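Why does residue order matter? Because the sequence determines the fold. Keep that principle in mind as you read this record.
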Amino acid sequence: MMFLLLLTLCGPLTQISAQYDPTWDSLDSRPLPDWYDKAKVGIFIHWGVYSVPSFGSEWFWFRWQGDNTEEYVKFMKQNYAPTFTYQDFAKEFTAEFFDPEEWVNLFVKSGAKYVVLTSKHHEGYTLWPSEYSHNWNADDVGSHRDLVGDLANAVRQTNLHFGLYHSLFEWFDPLYNEDKSNKFTTSKFVDTKLIPEMKELVNTYQPEILWSDGDGEALDAYWKSTEFLAWLYNESPVKETVITNDRWGYNVGCKHGGFFTCADRYNPGHLLPHKWENCMTIDKVSWGYRRNAVASDIFSIHELIVTLAETISCGGNILINVGPTKEGTIIPVFQERLLQLGHWLSINGEAIYESNAWSVQNDYFTSGVWYTVKEPIVYAIVLNWPHDNLLNIGSANSLFSTNGTQVVIIGNENSPLSWQFDRIVSIVFPDKATVFSEWAWVLKITPETK
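Structure:
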């Protein structure tokens, strides 16, 4: 039943023209464009003024001057003059090595199908020349470029889909903090800054994903979320194609929206009845680039594939974050992980792209085996090479009810594997040196057709 429900909500859907009311019942009835569920893998990019100090996390400004976190205060005292302000960092956000075509080429090679760029984080600095940014943007100070536009143009030369992250709140915006001090009974920030800014962003760059964040201090009514989304779905230039997430008020997450994110690095480990996304970071600590990261902070390729398998098997998409430097480079270790992932997907992608969650997500007998399906074929993603080359699985017994079931390792399709069925299924793996895939291996299980 859960599998059928997921297909109903997340499977191939046809976009239809409709008018949506500014209510969650109406907005939630809008079909999710089917490219998103098919795509499975995206790249997230956190890039902003916080990339200049590149210390701690993308919350640098707030940690330094909001809650006065000791390590951030100490860092500034030791390295900058007492008169130095956060705004002074912006002129060093130069992006002189930013080559959008080079980035996009890397993302294509990674096997990703969509890209989401932070157009504005909680610091309020926009990566496009926004009329509403009061000169706090990448065109006026820093790179003197329209970074959103540059990347959008490069992405649209490929088959990748282009999306934009946008933060609702801004830590130190005076209008926002006035509304906050009024317990959100006033809406000066929303009316004069937020809504006009989001409409400008959508009208100018026409993203296929609008990834909202920074909603956690106020209800959706303050953000006027349903009114904005009704405009987005009814009147905007992307009304037929845009996809949104669920971060539109602290009462909304994991309840309403096009796809659910629920929490950062959300990975429930079980099937959900609504399309969802695991937004996660290759740097386990931070979304933005950190100069002080150490090797143990970085996902290994095996850890990344484990997270991918768990996510896709449970019906989610995975959005993999990298944080570029202030100069506009993606550091070698991030490049390496993305290229390794792309190599794995180039062999095993048929078990990932356009797949569905099976009736069982992970094997009950042997841990580290996760399933996807493209009827009638079932894929078993094996995350650890089996001891003595013998894999025992219990959740796929129904597929082996006749002797005609065929099992191969993807990449080695010309060498079918032998198997036996006696309460559990025992599959004999070949010599590991003969297998093309690395880090994890996918069994393609094709039941005998009757």
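Confidence is low (pLDDT under 50) at residues 1-16.
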